[in-house]
Amino acid sequence: MTVAATKGLPKIKHVRAFTVRGGGADYHDQGEGHWIDDHIATPMSRYPEYRQSRQSFGINVLGTLVVELEAEDGTIGFAVTTGGEPACYIVEKHLSRFLIGRSPAEYEKIWDQMYFSSQYYGRKGLVVNAISGVDLAIWDLLGKLRGEPVYHMLGGAVRDELQFYATGARPDLAKEMGFIGGKLPLHHGPAEGLEGMEKNLSLLADMRSKCGDDFWLMYDCWMSLDLDYATRLAHRAWDECGLKWIEEALSPDDYWGYAALKKNAPRGLLVTTGEHEATRWGFRMLMDMECCDIIQPDVGWCGGVTELIKIASYADSRGVMMIPHGSSVYSYHFVITRHNSPFAEFLMMHPGPTEVVPMFAPQLLGEPVPVNGRIRASALDQPGFGVSLNPEIALHRPYSNS
Ligand SMILES: C[C@H](O)[C@H](O)[C@@H](O)[C@@H](O)C(=O)O
Ligand SMILES: [Mg+2]
After folding, report:
1. How is domain 153-382 classified at the architecture level of CATH?
2. This prediction's pTM
3. Interface ipTM
């Protein structure tokens, strides 16, 4: 085929950014009585008024960002991530100038321009969430224009299926559903003293008795601990309950604390973190400072697919496992192509959680869910990320770039 026959892809003609409430990519935005908002330890737990509910301090204040890119031929690529109205402003008023009139095949140059043009006020958090949402929409559009699933464009599957551990309040049910492990949210932090520590350990012991000795059990500490508490919890949870890993125990900025925790953790217990870290530079810091055994970037928060390729390659070169934070199809298409990503996270979004429901429900139609804790690679064989926006959800477009 001559170059002429493969003339460039249709250019991006329209950029639209919407916000949506109620679950989906901002998966903490749930109704009353959901396990994900039930006295979970956070850095705000030191304030009793913010201890019972993470929504009380605003964990769901942003909502979902939907990025839609329409090409000249009418093809639409889209993606969802956490960002809401402020992220819509960044996409429409700043990032759109690097997209309109450009080919989606230029994702490297577009990413570079989005990141370095916003570096003076971005670098991590909301701005890189917005960049990630745009980047994921570019990859979705590219796949739809080329008629290829994203995982094909990333090098193809290195295994026939994905296997998952489940995050939620019921690892005992997760075991029955075929998951390879269960990650519990930690409920009590340092402010609740030894009484809280004993409650954390008795819950873990109860789950160990229900799940047996071989089922993976993990604790997700959501940045809530100090180094002393994390080290004591790590040793007791390993000695008494065979904890597999302690996740995000400290502030994402405390690289020094993580390095000390990993150094002092019991041999055999894994230290993990990364879901609130961003870019190749942030993850290089985690790995160069020996902060953790597994990095857990969220592809909707760390910079998107284009940046995760760089992060995952650096981790692979150092023999570090890269297990992305739960981000639905956006991580499935990536994980299936990486040797250093042997399993993935499935966030149980049912309120119990007593059943498997799509992670980003109700926003994505066609979102695959694990059956017996697994998803076949063939379930991803649709162009782009293989999902479409649920037409029933109310999209709000607060700004415009035209
Ligand atoms: C369960 C945890 O508290 C968070 O809500 C969760 O989203 C995240 O930390 C995870 O690793 O899934
Ligand atoms: Mg986590």
Report:
1. Alpha-Beta Barrel (3.20)
2. 0.98
3. 0.99
Q: Are 332 and 157 in contact (CB under 8 A)?
A: no
Instruction: Give me the helices (H) in 251-401, please.
Output: 255-264, 279-288, 305-317, 328-335
- For residue 158, the CA-to-ligand 1 centroid distance in Å is 27
Least distant ligand from the CA of 183: 1
Q: Where in the chain is the domain with CATH 3.30.390.10?
A: 9-26+62-147
| 124-183 tens-digit pLDDT | 999 999 999 999 999 999 999 999 999 999 999 999 999 999 999 999 999 999 999 999
* Dist. CA 246–CA 238, nearest whole Å: 9
CATH number of 9-26+62-147: 3.30.390.10
Distance 19 CA to ligand 2 centre (A): 24
Gyration radius from the chain CA atoms: 21
pLDDT of 285-313, one tens digit each?
999 999 999 999 999 999 999 999 999 99
Catalytically active residues are 325
CATH 3.20.20.120 occupies which residues in the chain? Answer: 153-382
Does the CB atom of residue 40 touch ligand 1 within 6 A?
yes
